[in-house]
Amino acid sequence: MNFKGSHILSVNQFDREAIEHVFNVAHQMLPYAKRQKRTNVLDGAILGNLFFEPSTRTRVSFGTAFNLLGGEVRETTGLSNSALAKGESLYDTARVLSGYSDIIAMRHPDAGSVAEFAEGSRIPVINGGDGANEHPTQALLDLYTIQKELQAHGNNIDGMHIAMIGDLKHGRTVHSLSKLLCLFKNVRFTLISPNELAMPSSIIDTIQNSGHKFTITEQLEGSLDADICYQTRIQEERFPSQEEANQYRGKFRLNQQIYTKHFQSKTVIMHPLPRDSRAEANELDNDLNLNPNLAIFRQTDNGVLVRMALFALTLGVDTIVSQFDQKVHWHVNS
Amino acid sequence: MNFKGSHILSVNQFDREAIEHVFNVAHQMLPYAKRQKRTNVLDGAILGNLFFEPSTRTRVSFGTAFNLLGGEVRETTGLSNSALAKGESLYDTARVLSGYSDIIAMRHPDAGSVAEFAEGSRIPVINGGDGANEHPTQALLDLYTIQKELQAHGNNIDGMHIAMIGDLKHGRTVHSLSKLLCLFKNVRFTLISPNELAMPSSIIDTIQNSGHKFTITEQLEGSLDADICYQTRIQEERFPSQEEANQYRGKFRLNQQIYTKHFQSKTVIMHPLPRDSRAEANELDNDLNLNPNLAIFRQTDNGVLVRMALFALTLGVDTIVSQFDQKVHWHVNS
Amino acid sequence: MNFKGSHILSVNQFDREAIEHVFNVAHQMLPYAKRQKRTNVLDGAILGNLFFEPSTRTRVSFGTAFNLLGGEVRETTGLSNSALAKGESLYDTARVLSGYSDIIAMRHPDAGSVAEFAEGSRIPVINGGDGANEHPTQALLDLYTIQKELQAHGNNIDGMHIAMIGDLKHGRTVHSLSKLLCLFKNVRFTLISPNELAMPSSIIDTIQNSGHKFTITEQLEGSLDADICYQTRIQEERFPSQEEANQYRGKFRLNQQIYTKHFQSKTVIMHPLPRDSRAEANELDNDLNLNPNLAIFRQTDNGVLVRMALFALTLGVDTIVSQFDQKVHWHVNS
């Protein structure tokens, strides 16, 4: 896969080699994100950070990643005031806005919209989420986190065992992550959800056709030797009614007691965030915050590294970043 | 006209010499916008990009223009949360906000508001549109585009023939553009609109008093030897009802077939954008996208150059920009 | 008080020595804000400017202060689209967002929210206002202004006389400012408000316990030898109804005539802004704009200096700022 000048629209673009390339570059970004040094390789470059659907954390993560490489960010949030609302086509919007920056990160509520936009764009477009369709940088940061966490235990993705829990039907992240995992060897999937919220058969087919083992179950039962427990949230907005969403509340609850009962002491806990921490949510309890295997905040930190890597690769500066190293002059908390 | 430290509020400020000065500077900005090189002449300068009325493309265009000169952008979007909504005067807002940047670009829904704001401002203010009143940078980018397009055909603005089509009553852009064209010699205007949406008599008077020729007609008829066809959109928001707006829909439709019938093969097609591309819009059809004379996206690209020129001129750096040239280290799509 | 790596959450953190330290650093920022020179000491640093409650002037002031030190700004405005609205805890939000910048300035509508957020943050957090609770940078800029204005008359804070007028019950700024003034010596307070809107007894106790003199009165009467007249606005949003707020309208009006009648020719007029300039507001009349003692716009200018100082101190660059001095190449209005 040639990244330079390319759009990043879907996890389907990636083969194993491409993923490992991204992850190698992401790893080289760590000293910059940790503020051991900084770089101005993209000094003067402009990111168009177009969030036609608002999302604070993903938007800021993209912007920060670009700033960490030395670039500037021009931003737009929301759809209601945009020309798109006045009937402008995605093609026109892309033709115009791609004249205002060097690269674009874009989120939009409609499935397929980012790819349609990319056709009109004269510069690389990175998909920051297009409705129920794709969110490739989330899948990549999830997989990067899995690799890092497993490496810390002396393991790697080949041969790993992942338990996915919760709403596996609507969860865009578990679909994309499963596709990426299928590019590796001998992965075991334990898919835990009620029948109504089961993993779609297309994903199951992909898992099966790539020769991986999987178990489908409705309950979290017995003792699982999973390396990763990937918990999802109830996507309330995808259910016909709040009542229907509520009936699944708490069925996939994870707290320290449930973790101890069903998982190993080394099992890493992941979640796409945000987690609902209201008392009635029963999703991923705060008592897990003290558990060193709770990797949810390492996930978001890793998101910055992965996005830096994608910017560096698509703008063709991945091999020269360190030629522009600078010192950090301010105090950094250790 | 002395630009240094001045406000840019209205096309009425400009004489022919001033326009040509702006256009010469704008032309020098092209290598920066095309990323053949970059400049940091405004490194450390701050633009206050105050869009009290949202407008994605104009806002981002101003911000990008400032970034391309090396400066930073602080931004505000919308009116509802601002102090203006709590009864603060434009004078107070200007006194306060002009302490936060080196120059201001401002859009506001009320006619006259930007000029009123400028009276309280301690730094230059560039009008980014004040309701139905003025949008001088749009007029300048339109005229700059006309000059560039005509030069490509070996012609120039003196002696040109422009057809303006559509809602000439409410279209702020055609009013301002007409005023600027009147500063040149022997321009011919063909003004095509239904009587109800005709060009205001004040603009007609200006055209007549400056000795230019014009034709007023209700229909696009026969063969026009126009150099420029400037198509406008129905400003739905200015009509008493949607029904009233709808009765004019399609009356000024331009597609490849109509273009071929009424215009020359060299006639340049312009439009202030956004264009409505919904099936029922019948405004400027997508089949024109393949027509090399469709200049609408060159217009928005030129907008960045013109805004860069105005920033450079008002901040007095127009003659030293290239002293701060830097290399572009990232991949640029050709 | 050790500023490096610390949160700035409340005026209660400050003793007299700390305040004087902040003010000394703020004073050194003046040449940068006046554009006599610039600095890039924070080149590459990122401010997370998180305004979960919108506030144009405070938000832009923080962003500008960071830009003036050479840093970049990532921003968020409003609460409705944030993860907080989906039930994410302030702790989670802080853990995530503190991975995206080097320092955070935050405003939030709920009292105590910024301190709660700070507990989860891995980087310094500066309180930009948490509902009715605290807005420490406003109190510091008010006090800095008082010091500067008094020094211009050959006086200082010790021994000064301040008249506070208006809604002293709901005015967060007068509470915080009073606390800070109590750290100095022999301050005289004249507190003018109707009984229903009187200064809370907790603040009165603080004034009394620190040995300062105060007078409480319902009317602006006679001649006051106040050095400072601090006028407040009716906080309409804190009253049960608009009617209740309206009954106090005009009771604390200040215009040139009232000023001349009750104050000395040297009395400095301050106000936390925005002031309501609508005809019916009767708050702080525009005829005072010509009065050289009207310091309200010097207050907002000083806000930039104080925020620059707090950024420099918490990031530990206060002593090296001038090592990174650069020339200003653009025209600056004198």
UniProtKB/TrEMBL annotation, chains A, B, C:
Name its pathway. Answer: Pyrimidine metabolism; UMP biosynthesis via de novo pathway; (S)-dihydroorotate from bicarbonate: step 2/3
- Domain Aspartate/ornithine carbamoyltransferase carbamoyl-P binding positions: 7-147
Q: Mind listing the UniProt keywords for this protein, alphabetically? A: Pyrimidine biosynthesis, Transferase
Q: Which PROSITE patterns match?
A: CARBAMOYLTRANSFERASE (PS00097)
In terms of Gene3D superfamilies, this protein maps to:
Aspartate/ornithine carbamoyltransferase (3.40.50.1370)
Asked if the record carries the keyword ATP-binding, the reply is no
Q: Which superkingdom is the protein from? A: Bacteria
Top EC class for this record = transferase
The answer to whether UniProt assigns keyword Iron to this entry is no
| GO MF, any single term | aspartate carbamoyltransferase activity
User: Sorted alphabetically, which Pfam families does this protein's record hold?
Assistant: OTCace, OTCace_N
- What positions does the domain Aspartate/ornithine carbamoyltransferase Asp/Orn-binding occupy? 158-313
Ranges in a coiled coil = none
* Catalytic activity, as annotated: carbamoyl phosphate + L-aspartate = N-carbamoyl-L-aspartate + phosphate + H(+)
What EC number(s) is this enzyme filed under?
Answer: 2.1.3.2
Q: Which InterPro entries match?
A: Asp/Orn_carbamoyltranf_P-bd, Asp/Orn_carbamoylTrfase, Asp/Orn_carbamoylTrfase_sf, Asp_carbamoyltransf, Asp_carbamoyltransf_Asp/Orn-bd
Its job = Catalyzes the condensation of carbamoyl phosphate and aspartate to form carbamoyl aspartate and inorganic phosphate, the committed step in the de novo pyrimidine nucleotide biosynthesis pathway.
Q: Which family does it belong to?
A: Belongs to the aspartate/ornithine carbamoyltransferase superfamily. ATCase family.
- Name the record gives this protein: Aspartate carbamoyltransferase
The top of its lineage is: Bacteria, Pseudomonadati, Pseudomonadota, Gammaproteobacteria, Alteromonadales
